[in-house]
Automatic annotation (TrEMBL):
Protein name per UniProt: ABC transporter ATP-binding protein
Location, primary (coarse class): membrane
NCBIfam families xrefs: oligo_HPY
Gene Ontology biological process terms from the UniProt entry: peptide transport; transmembrane transport
Length: 324
């Protein structure tokens, strides 16, 4: 890992336009990813993690629009590129592992064809040459009998195997940055550990930077260098993993940590996990104050009307709050 930023997101805001209202999915979000590092983005469902990744990939739904901000990848603002220019980057230097491998893989094409497609498109190889590379990629992601798997269809594979195929497709052109959106969702713990180890091994071999999107703080602790905690489309805390997980300052981050069984102390009768009341609110452009204040036990009067302020918790460790 070095100090050069491969990805810089500045003041990104994404809105979804509905029939009767506009919903803010991402609000004034800024973060960076250095070459060769793994950044974890964590938060409960509805916090804007996946929308952020789709904005980076320029794959947002038609109802969504980027209303402000820049997304610089290797010094180029992806938001200013044409779709043709973006296709030259997407799947080539910038790749993504999507959340649901069964719905992301095409059921009518073989595994080999789906992996070979981007190799033919971006590297100019013949289909026969691309299949050879595809077999090597399946070996890299530890798929058993890779030559045979090239002829399989997605429905013939287990969930863990399909996830490995998705990783192989994402790595086909040796990307500089890999976005992994919940790569271990719906997999048992043994397969989860294998998938995370594969990502680590690949990073060491290829020097790929990784953005790992998850709701699982255990995955963050195991796999990431830094972590960014999101709530209601905004960043609430960021820093090195050890700083954020063991010296959390924001009430939301603290609530997430208290909900983990590993952090619950006391005898068996007292080991009830902490609950966070309510749900992530729907944010509109007119919303003011802190989005978390209605669920926060430490909220003060200013939280309802004034935006959170940036506070320094230590070297490279910041959080956004007024309840201090």
């Amino acid at each position: 890992m070095n100090d050069k930023n491969i990805l810089s997101v500045e003041n990104l805001s994404v809105h979804f336009e509905g029939f009767d209202r506009t919903v803010v999915a991402v609000k004034d979000l800024s973060f960076h990813v250095r070459s060769g590092e793994t950044l974890g983005i964590v938060g409960e469902s509805g916090c804007g993690k996946s929308v952020t990744s789709l904005a980076i990939m320029r794959l947002l739904a038609k109802s969504a629009r980027v209303v402000s901000g820049t997304i610089e990848f290797e010094g180029r603002n992806l938001l200013s590129l044409s779709e043709k220019q973006m296709r030259g980057i997407r799947g080539n230097k910038l790749s993504m592992i999507f959340q649901e491998p069964m719905t992301s893989l095409n059921p009518v094409f073989t595994v080999g064809r789906q992996i070979a497609e981007s190799i033919v498109l971006h590297q100019g190889k013949t289909y026969k040459q691309a299949l050879v590379d595809a077999q090597g990629l399946l070996e890299l992601v530890q798929v058993s009998d890779p030559q045979k798997r090239l002829a399989n269809y997605p429905y013939e594979l287990s969930g863990g195997m399909r996830q490995r195929v998705m990783i192989a497709i994402a790595l086909a052109c040796k990307p500089r940055l890999l976005i992994a959106d919940e790569p271990t969702t719906a997999l048992d713990v043994t397969i989860q550990a294998q998938i995370l180890q594969i990502l680590k091994d690949i990073q060491q071999q290829l020097g790929t930077a990784i953005v790992l999107i998850t709701h699982d703080l255990g995955v963050v602790a195991e796999s990431c260098d830094r972590v960014m905690v999101m709530y209601a489309g905004s960043k609430v805390e960021e820093g090195r993993v050890a700083d954020v997980l063991y010296r959390a300052h924001h009430p939301y981050t603290q609530a997430l940590i208290r909900s983990l069984p590993a952090f619950v102390e006391g005898d068996a009768e007292q080991q009830r996990l902490a609950e966070l009341p309510g749900i992530v609110p729907t944010i509109t452009p007119q919303a003011v104050g802190c989005a978390f204040q209605s669920r926060c036990s430490r909220a003060v009067a200013a939280c309802a009307s004034a935006a959170p302020i940036a506070l320094q918790a230590g070297d490279a460790h910041r959080y956004w709050c007024r309840a201090e």
